[in-house]
Inverse folding.
Protein backbone atom coordinates (compact mmCIF):
# COMPACT_ATOMS: atom_id res chain seq x y z
CA UNK A 1 0.00 0.00 0.00
CA UNK A 2 1.35 3.39 -1.01
CA UNK A 3 1.74 6.37 1.32
CA UNK A 4 -1.42 8.00 0.02
CA UNK A 5 -3.53 4.94 0.79
CA UNK A 6 -2.13 4.71 4.31
CA UNK A 7 -2.74 8.37 5.12
CA UNK A 8 -6.24 8.35 3.63
CA UNK A 9 -7.12 5.36 5.78
CA UNK A 10 -5.43 6.56 8.92
CA UNK A 11 -6.92 10.05 8.65
CA UNK A 12 -10.23 8.33 9.32
CA UNK A 13 -9.03 7.23 12.76
CA UNK A 14 -8.37 10.36 14.81
CA UNK A 15 -9.25 10.35 18.49
CA UNK A 16 -11.44 13.09 19.91
CA UNK A 17 -12.35 14.08 23.47
CA UNK A 18 -14.85 12.12 25.52
CA UNK A 19 -15.61 11.35 29.14
CA UNK A 20 -12.91 9.96 31.42
CA UNK A 21 -12.65 6.18 31.38
CA UNK A 22 -10.95 4.42 34.28
CA UNK A 23 -9.91 1.47 32.12
CA UNK A 24 -8.76 3.60 29.19
CA UNK A 25 -6.65 6.71 28.56
CA UNK A 26 -7.24 9.82 30.60
CA UNK A 27 -8.84 11.83 27.82
CA UNK A 28 -11.18 14.68 28.70
CA UNK A 29 -11.82 18.28 27.71
CA UNK A 30 -12.97 20.04 24.54
CA UNK A 31 -12.38 18.63 21.08
CA UNK A 32 -9.82 21.31 20.23
CA UNK A 33 -7.57 20.03 23.05
CA UNK A 34 -6.93 16.84 21.14
CA UNK A 35 -7.16 17.67 17.49
CA UNK A 36 -7.13 21.26 16.18
CA UNK A 37 -9.91 21.28 13.60
CA UNK A 38 -9.27 24.68 12.03
CA UNK A 39 -9.38 25.67 8.38
CA UNK A 40 -5.86 26.08 7.03
CA UNK A 41 -4.14 23.64 9.40
CA UNK A 42 -1.69 21.39 7.54
CA UNK A 43 0.15 18.21 8.55
CA UNK A 44 3.07 16.81 6.53
CA UNK A 45 3.90 13.10 6.64
CA UNK A 46 6.56 10.82 5.29
CA UNK A 47 5.82 7.18 4.56
CA UNK A 48 7.42 3.81 3.98
CA UNK A 49 6.39 0.26 3.09
CA UNK A 50 8.09 -2.92 4.33
CA UNK A 51 7.48 -6.35 2.82
CA UNK A 52 7.61 -9.68 4.65
CA UNK A 53 11.00 -10.25 2.96
CA UNK A 54 12.33 -7.17 4.74
CA UNK A 55 12.48 -4.87 1.70
CA UNK A 56 11.63 -1.24 2.51
CA UNK A 57 10.64 1.50 0.08
CA UNK A 58 10.08 5.16 0.88
CA UNK A 59 7.29 7.30 -0.58
CA UNK A 60 7.19 11.00 -1.41
CA UNK A 61 6.03 13.30 1.43
CA UNK A 62 2.35 14.15 1.53
CA UNK A 63 0.07 16.60 3.32
CA UNK A 64 -3.31 16.61 5.03
CA UNK A 65 -5.09 19.97 5.08
CA UNK A 66 -8.38 21.14 6.57
CA UNK A 67 -10.15 23.04 3.79
CA UNK A 68 -13.36 24.00 5.59
CA UNK A 69 -15.09 23.63 8.96
CA UNK A 70 -18.72 24.01 10.11
CA UNK A 71 -19.86 23.07 6.61
CA UNK A 72 -23.34 21.74 5.82
CA UNK A 73 -22.83 18.30 4.24
CA UNK A 74 -25.36 15.49 4.23
CA UNK A 75 -27.63 17.33 6.67
CA UNK A 76 -24.84 17.91 9.20
CA UNK A 77 -23.97 21.63 9.70
CA UNK A 78 -20.74 20.87 11.58
CA UNK A 79 -18.90 18.77 9.01
CA UNK A 80 -15.27 19.51 8.11
CA UNK A 81 -13.52 18.83 4.82
CA UNK A 82 -10.03 17.31 4.62
CA UNK A 83 -7.77 17.24 1.58
CA UNK A 84 -5.02 14.61 1.25
CA UNK A 85 -2.36 15.49 -1.30
CA UNK A 86 0.96 14.25 -2.61
CA UNK A 87 2.69 14.72 -5.97
CA UNK A 88 0.49 12.07 -7.64
CA UNK A 89 -2.88 12.29 -5.91
CA UNK A 90 -5.43 14.61 -4.36
CA UNK A 91 -8.70 13.73 -2.65
CA UNK A 92 -11.25 15.54 -0.49
CA UNK A 93 -13.25 13.81 2.25
CA UNK A 94 -15.87 15.04 4.71
CA UNK A 95 -15.99 14.11 8.41
CA UNK A 96 -17.98 14.92 11.53
CA UNK A 97 -17.86 13.86 15.18
CA UNK A 98 -20.46 12.82 17.72
CA UNK A 99 -19.23 12.19 21.24
CA UNK A 100 -16.29 9.80 20.99
CA UNK A 101 -17.01 8.65 17.43
CA UNK A 102 -15.68 9.93 14.11
CA UNK A 103 -17.92 9.64 11.03
CA UNK A 104 -17.02 9.65 7.33
CA UNK A 105 -19.52 10.95 4.77
CA UNK A 106 -20.39 8.41 2.07
CA UNK A 107 -23.66 9.91 0.86
CA UNK A 108 -24.97 11.25 -2.39
CA UNK A 109 -22.23 12.39 -4.75
CA UNK A 110 -24.31 15.34 -5.97
CA UNK A 111 -24.31 16.76 -2.40
CA UNK A 112 -20.58 16.40 -1.80
CA UNK A 113 -18.55 15.42 -4.85
CA UNK A 114 -15.63 13.07 -4.21
CA UNK A 115 -13.05 12.34 -6.89
CA UNK A 116 -13.60 8.84 -8.29
CA UNK A 117 -11.24 5.98 -8.93
CA UNK A 118 -11.69 2.80 -10.94
CA UNK A 119 -9.31 -0.05 -10.17
CA UNK A 120 -8.30 -2.08 -13.21
CA UNK A 121 -9.89 -5.54 -13.30
CA UNK A 122 -8.24 -7.29 -16.22
CA UNK A 123 -10.93 -8.91 -18.38
CA UNK A 124 -13.46 -8.17 -15.64
CA UNK A 125 -15.97 -5.60 -14.48
CA UNK A 126 -15.96 -2.33 -12.56
CA UNK A 127 -18.81 0.05 -11.79
CA UNK A 128 -19.81 3.71 -11.60
CA UNK A 129 -22.94 5.53 -10.41
CA UNK A 130 -23.75 9.03 -11.70
CA UNK A 131 -26.80 11.27 -11.40
CA UNK A 132 -28.69 12.60 -14.47
CA UNK A 133 -26.99 15.79 -15.66
CA UNK A 134 -23.93 15.11 -13.50
CA UNK A 135 -20.42 14.77 -14.94
CA UNK A 136 -18.12 12.60 -12.83
CA UNK A 137 -14.44 11.93 -13.54
CA UNK A 138 -12.73 8.64 -12.68
CA UNK A 139 -8.99 8.00 -12.69
CA UNK A 140 -8.21 4.44 -13.75
CA UNK A 141 -5.60 2.83 -11.49
CA UNK A 142 -3.80 -0.50 -11.52
CA UNK A 143 -3.60 -1.33 -7.83
CA UNK A 144 -3.20 1.92 -5.90
CA UNK A 145 -4.21 5.58 -6.06
CA UNK A 146 -0.75 6.53 -7.35
CA UNK A 147 -0.52 4.06 -10.23
CA UNK A 148 -2.70 5.47 -13.04
CA UNK A 149 -3.07 3.49 -16.29
CA UNK A 150 -3.21 4.85 -19.87
CA UNK A 151 -6.55 3.88 -21.43
CA UNK A 152 -8.79 4.26 -24.46
CA UNK A 153 -12.55 3.74 -24.88
CA UNK A 154 -13.14 0.61 -26.96
CA UNK A 155 -16.97 0.66 -26.82
CA UNK A 156 -19.08 3.69 -25.90
CA UNK A 157 -22.13 3.44 -23.58
CA UNK A 158 -25.71 3.87 -24.78
CA UNK A 159 -25.73 7.64 -25.39
CA UNK A 160 -29.41 7.94 -24.46
CA UNK A 161 -28.36 7.02 -20.90
CA UNK A 162 -24.77 8.28 -20.50
CA UNK A 163 -21.90 9.90 -22.40
CA UNK A 164 -18.22 9.11 -21.87
CA UNK A 165 -14.98 10.78 -22.89
CA UNK A 166 -11.33 10.77 -21.89
CA UNK A 167 -10.22 14.01 -20.25
CA UNK A 168 -6.61 12.85 -20.61
CA UNK A 169 -4.92 9.54 -21.24
CA UNK A 170 -5.73 8.31 -17.72
CA UNK A 171 -9.09 9.79 -16.70
CA UNK A 172 -12.62 8.91 -17.78
CA UNK A 173 -15.49 11.40 -17.56
CA UNK A 174 -19.01 9.96 -17.42
CA UNK A 175 -22.01 12.27 -17.81
CA UNK A 176 -25.50 11.09 -16.88
CA UNK A 177 -28.21 11.73 -19.49
CA UNK A 178 -31.24 9.81 -18.21
CA UNK A 179 -31.99 7.18 -15.57
CA UNK A 180 -31.01 3.70 -16.66
CA UNK A 181 -28.19 1.17 -16.89
CA UNK A 182 -25.55 0.86 -19.60
CA UNK A 183 -21.86 0.03 -19.96
CA UNK A 184 -18.64 0.90 -21.74
CA UNK A 185 -15.46 -1.01 -22.42
CA UNK A 186 -11.98 0.36 -21.68
CA UNK A 187 -8.71 -0.91 -23.10
CA UNK A 188 -5.23 -0.35 -21.75
CA UNK A 189 -2.91 1.35 -24.24
CA UNK A 190 0.33 0.31 -22.52
CA UNK A 191 -0.05 -3.42 -23.27
CA UNK A 192 0.93 -5.24 -26.48
CA UNK A 193 -1.84 -7.79 -25.85
CA UNK A 194 -5.39 -6.44 -25.68
CA UNK A 195 -6.44 -5.96 -22.05
CA UNK A 196 -9.99 -4.74 -21.52
CA UNK A 197 -12.38 -3.98 -18.66
CA UNK A 198 -16.15 -3.42 -18.72
CA UNK A 199 -17.48 -0.48 -16.69
CA UNK A 200 -21.11 -0.85 -15.64
CA UNK A 201 -22.82 2.53 -15.44
CA UNK A 202 -25.98 3.26 -13.51
CA UNK A 203 -27.62 6.66 -13.86
CA UNK A 204 -29.84 7.43 -10.89
CA UNK A 205 -30.77 10.33 -8.62
CA UNK A 206 -28.47 10.49 -5.59
CA UNK A 207 -26.19 7.73 -4.38
CA UNK A 208 -22.62 6.75 -5.13
CA UNK A 209 -20.63 3.61 -5.81
CA UNK A 210 -20.80 2.36 -2.25
CA UNK A 211 -24.29 0.97 -1.85
CA UNK A 212 -24.65 -1.33 1.12
CA UNK A 213 -27.67 0.00 3.06
CA UNK A 214 -25.53 2.21 5.28
CA UNK A 215 -26.53 5.70 6.32
CA UNK A 216 -24.78 8.63 4.63
CA UNK A 217 -22.52 9.05 7.67
CA UNK A 218 -20.55 5.92 8.57
CA UNK A 219 -18.76 5.53 11.95
CA UNK A 220 -15.12 4.73 11.23
CA UNK A 221 -13.20 5.51 14.44
CA UNK A 222 -14.15 5.39 18.09
CA UNK A 223 -12.18 5.93 21.25
CA UNK A 224 -11.70 2.44 22.66
CA UNK A 225 -10.94 1.33 26.20
CA UNK A 226 -8.11 -1.02 27.15
CA UNK A 227 -10.65 -3.87 26.99
CA UNK A 228 -11.51 -3.01 23.38
CA UNK A 229 -14.85 -1.83 21.99
CA UNK A 230 -16.91 -2.68 18.93
CA UNK A 231 -17.45 0.64 17.20
CA UNK A 232 -19.32 -0.77 14.24
CA UNK A 233 -21.09 -4.04 13.48
CA UNK A 234 -23.45 -4.49 10.56
CA UNK A 235 -24.98 -7.55 8.86
CA UNK A 236 -26.91 -7.44 5.61
CA UNK A 237 -28.19 -9.98 3.07
CA UNK A 238 -28.55 -9.62 -0.70
CA UNK A 239 -30.74 -12.11 -2.59
CA UNK A 240 -31.41 -12.28 -6.33
CA UNK A 241 -32.14 -14.79 -9.11
CA UNK A 242 -29.87 -15.17 -12.12
CA UNK A 243 -31.23 -14.62 -15.62
CA UNK A 244 -29.85 -17.82 -17.16
CA UNK A 245 -31.36 -20.51 -14.95
CA UNK A 246 -33.27 -18.61 -12.22
CA UNK A 247 -30.90 -19.99 -9.58
CA UNK A 248 -31.03 -18.07 -6.32
CA UNK A 249 -27.85 -16.32 -5.16
CA UNK A 250 -27.62 -15.27 -1.50
CA UNK A 251 -24.78 -13.15 -0.13
CA UNK A 252 -24.71 -12.62 3.65
CA UNK A 253 -22.16 -9.87 4.39
CA UNK A 254 -20.94 -8.93 7.87
CA UNK A 255 -18.90 -5.81 8.61
CA UNK A 256 -17.15 -5.29 11.95
CA UNK A 257 -14.72 -2.74 13.38
CA UNK A 258 -13.19 -2.61 16.85
CA UNK A 259 -10.87 -0.18 18.64
CA UNK A 260 -8.61 -0.75 21.65
CA UNK A 261 -6.34 1.48 23.75
CA UNK A 262 -2.89 -0.15 24.08
CA UNK A 263 -1.18 2.30 26.44
CA UNK A 264 1.38 5.10 26.20
CA UNK A 265 4.48 4.74 24.03
CA UNK A 266 7.30 7.08 22.99
CA UNK A 267 7.64 7.56 19.23
CA UNK A 268 9.92 9.55 16.98
CA UNK A 269 7.97 12.32 15.19
CA UNK A 270 8.37 16.03 14.48
CA UNK A 271 12.12 15.54 14.79
CA UNK A 272 12.06 14.40 18.42
CA UNK A 273 10.97 11.57 20.71
CA UNK A 274 7.53 12.29 22.18
CA UNK A 275 5.08 10.28 24.33
CA UNK A 276 1.91 9.27 22.52
CA UNK A 277 -1.23 7.27 23.25
CA UNK A 278 -1.45 4.11 21.16
CA UNK A 279 -4.63 2.61 19.69
CA UNK A 280 -5.33 -0.47 17.58
CA UNK A 281 -8.30 -0.80 15.20
CA UNK A 282 -9.31 -4.05 13.51
CA UNK A 283 -11.58 -4.04 10.43
CA UNK A 284 -13.09 -7.14 8.82
CA UNK A 285 -15.63 -8.24 6.21
CA UNK A 286 -17.06 -11.77 6.13
CA UNK A 287 -19.22 -13.26 3.37
CA UNK A 288 -21.43 -16.35 3.39
CA UNK A 289 -22.45 -17.16 -0.19
CA UNK A 290 -24.78 -19.79 -1.61
CA UNK A 291 -25.94 -20.37 -5.20
CA UNK A 292 -28.86 -22.60 -6.12
CA UNK A 293 -29.16 -23.82 -2.55
CA UNK A 294 -25.52 -24.96 -2.32
CA UNK A 295 -22.92 -23.31 -0.12
CA UNK A 296 -20.16 -21.76 -2.24
CA UNK A 297 -18.03 -19.71 0.16
CA UNK A 298 -17.82 -18.80 3.82
CA UNK A 299 -15.01 -16.71 5.28
CA UNK A 300 -13.09 -13.43 5.28
CA UNK A 301 -13.21 -11.04 2.35
CA UNK A 302 -11.18 -8.31 4.05
CA UNK A 303 -9.09 -8.04 7.20
CA UNK A 304 -6.96 -5.06 8.22
CA UNK A 305 -5.41 -3.53 11.31
CA UNK A 306 -4.48 0.13 11.83
CA UNK A 307 -2.28 1.23 14.74
CA UNK A 308 -2.47 4.92 15.58
CA UNK A 309 -0.32 7.06 17.91
CA UNK A 310 -2.02 10.25 19.15
CA UNK A 311 -0.59 13.36 20.83
CA UNK A 312 -2.81 15.90 22.55
CA UNK A 313 -3.14 19.15 20.60
CA UNK A 314 -1.42 17.68 17.54
CA UNK A 315 -3.47 14.77 16.24
CA UNK A 316 -1.94 11.55 15.01
CA UNK A 317 1.85 11.54 14.83
CA UNK A 318 2.34 8.02 13.53
CA UNK A 319 0.21 5.34 11.90
CA UNK A 320 0.79 1.81 10.69
CA UNK A 321 -1.37 -0.33 8.38
CA UNK A 322 -1.31 -4.06 7.73
CA UNK A 323 -3.98 -6.02 5.94
CA UNK A 324 -5.39 -7.67 2.86
CA UNK A 325 -8.74 -7.73 1.18
CA UNK A 326 -10.87 -7.53 -1.93
CA UNK A 327 -12.87 -4.51 -3.07
CA UNK A 328 -14.99 -3.70 -0.01
CA UNK A 329 -17.80 -1.96 -1.90
CA UNK A 330 -21.13 -3.53 -2.87
CA UNK A 331 -22.96 -2.24 -5.93
CA UNK A 332 -26.36 -3.36 -7.18
CA UNK A 333 -28.19 -1.86 -10.14
CA UNK A 334 -31.04 -2.56 -12.52
CA UNK A 335 -34.49 -3.98 -11.73
CA UNK A 336 -36.03 -7.15 -10.29
CA UNK A 337 -38.90 -8.76 -12.18
CA UNK A 338 -41.90 -10.40 -10.52
CA UNK A 339 -40.03 -13.67 -10.00
CA UNK A 340 -37.00 -12.00 -8.40
CA UNK A 341 -34.64 -12.20 -11.39
CA UNK A 342 -32.16 -9.32 -11.35
CA UNK A 343 -31.99 -7.61 -14.74
CA UNK A 344 -28.91 -5.57 -14.01
CA UNK A 345 -25.78 -6.25 -12.00
CA UNK A 346 -24.52 -7.13 -8.52
CA UNK A 347 -20.92 -6.66 -7.39
CA UNK A 348 -19.73 -7.53 -3.88
CA UNK A 349 -16.22 -8.28 -2.60
CA UNK A 350 -16.52 -11.85 -3.97
CA UNK A 351 -19.48 -11.88 -6.41
CA UNK A 352 -19.64 -10.55 -9.96
CA UNK A 353 -23.07 -10.91 -11.58
CA UNK A 354 -24.18 -9.13 -14.74
CA UNK A 355 -27.20 -9.58 -16.99
CA UNK A 356 -25.67 -8.41 -20.26
CA UNK A 357 -29.08 -8.46 -21.98
CA UNK A 358 -29.77 -5.16 -20.25
CA UNK A 359 -26.47 -3.56 -21.19
CA UNK A 360 -25.29 -2.74 -24.69
CA UNK A 361 -23.18 -3.92 -26.54
CA UNK A 362 -23.23 -7.41 -24.97
CA UNK A 363 -25.79 -10.21 -24.54
CA UNK A 364 -26.03 -13.09 -22.09
CA UNK A 365 -25.22 -13.16 -18.38
CA UNK A 366 -22.48 -14.29 -16.04
CA UNK A 367 -22.08 -15.16 -12.37
CA UNK A 368 -18.60 -15.50 -10.88
CA UNK A 369 -17.83 -16.16 -7.20
CA UNK A 370 -14.25 -15.69 -6.00
CA UNK A 371 -13.67 -18.57 -3.55
CA UNK A 372 -9.93 -18.01 -3.04
CA UNK A 373 -9.02 -17.75 0.64
CA UNK A 374 -7.92 -14.29 1.75
CA UNK A 375 -4.14 -13.95 1.58
CA UNK A 376 -2.13 -13.11 4.66
CA UNK A 377 -0.84 -9.51 4.81
CA UNK A 378 2.46 -9.19 2.98
CA UNK A 379 3.28 -5.55 3.66
CA UNK A 380 3.22 -3.03 6.48
CA UNK A 381 2.91 0.65 5.60
CA UNK A 382 3.77 3.46 8.01
CA UNK A 383 3.20 7.23 8.01
CA UNK A 384 5.07 9.57 10.40
CA UNK A 385 4.39 13.25 11.08
CA UNK A 386 7.39 15.40 10.07
CA UNK A 387 5.94 18.95 10.15
CA UNK A 388 2.84 21.02 10.96
CA UNK A 389 1.93 24.69 10.51
CA UNK A 390 0.20 25.40 13.82
Amino acid sequence: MKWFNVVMMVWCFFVFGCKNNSTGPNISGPLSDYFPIKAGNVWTYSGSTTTTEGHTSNAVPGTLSILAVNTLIGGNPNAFVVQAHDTNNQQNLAFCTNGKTLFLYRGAADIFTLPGYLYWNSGGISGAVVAPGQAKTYTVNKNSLSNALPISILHQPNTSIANALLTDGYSLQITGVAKGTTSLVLQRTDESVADTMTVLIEIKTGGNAVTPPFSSWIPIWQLGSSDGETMYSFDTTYTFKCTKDSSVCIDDISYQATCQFLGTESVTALGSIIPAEKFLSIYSINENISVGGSAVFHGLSANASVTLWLVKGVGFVKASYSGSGLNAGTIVGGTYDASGILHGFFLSPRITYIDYNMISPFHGDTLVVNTTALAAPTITSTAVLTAKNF
Notes: The chain has two domains: 3-106+210-388, 116-203. Residues 3-11 form the longest helix (9 residues).
